[in-house]
């Protein structure tokens, strides 16, 4: 088994097709097929099921897929392990939801370049459900998701290590929080980051707003676009309407927050979104009466998958720092300190 074969294997699984994988790898399909057969022969097992509908992993292939990322990254890490002991080097992967990426991704890259230029970030931006799948498959060290994913978890750090959000937070505060968190014996853990309010976006809601606030009872019959049923945001929205015995008039399910925002901007329908979805602030938005349309963001952490513990620790520190900055800019980001619930009447 060769490391390059593992790289090919990962691409085949993610592409779902030998032809698409070969195109992505800039090689011929017969050459790629030969490499996959050689990998199967070296492991004495069948890794791929081939059919007219494409390629899918066997149970052995799925097991290899979960470990392949770690094996490839450990191999890549060999070149950095001989660096000076004072340098923090390594590859750290971070999954960020589409909304959070608009306020956290660029600051995290900037913080990393300024403080630890030897660390290479792998940033994944997607919907919360897909990030969950990647995290569980060992594809990333950190993943930001929302409370529904972890609220029943027994591996919660219970907020251990979090800095207080009320005042000025120093680098020393964050370093102490990180050290405390990483001392836990759990391989996979999570910590709460911030709370986020959802708003009704779109000029369609303007006629029903009073002092910048709308009621779900008043807008339930308006055309609405919403995320797909697997989305955490969709669950939150459905729950809010259900608590009021309302049936929203959802005219389209979408997996793209920017597209939902564009439709809301057009006035064809409204959307319930976090403030972070409209970083430019170009679409009218309104508070929704009550406190049901709030969610808590959490940071999922996998210590066991890290190939460089020092790099993992550094990026955890950076994530907490940039998150704290985003909370302090709450008027523009929509991020709020934990446990600041309020109700709009």
Observed structural traits:
single chain; 345 residues; alpha/beta; Arc Repressor Mutant, subunit A; D-Maltodextrin-Binding Protein, domain 2; 3 domains; eleven-stranded mixed beta sheet; two-stranded antiparallel ribbon; 12 helices; 43% helix; 22% strand; DNA-binding; transcription; activator
In round numbers, the mean pLDDT is: 81
Low-confidence stretches: 148-172, 340-345
Helix content: 40-55%
Q: How many beta strands in the DSSP annotation?
A: 13
Number of helices: 12
Give the biggest sheet: 11 strands, mixed
CATH superfamily of the largest domain: Periplasmic binding protein-like II
Tally of separate domains = 3
Beta-strand percentage range:
15-25%
Q: Calculate the terminal CA-CA distance, rounded to whole Å.
A: 64 Å
**Oligomeric status:** single chain
CATH class of the largest domain: Alpha Beta
Summing up helix and strand content along with how strands pair, one would put the structural category as: alpha/beta
Shape: globular
The SSE order reads HHHEEHEHEHEHEEHEHEHEEEHHE
Q: What fold name goes in the CATH topology slot of the largest domain?
A: D-Maltodextrin-Binding Protein, domain 2
The CATH level-2 architecture of the largest domain is identified as: 3-Layer(aba) Sandwich
Radius of gyration: 23 Å
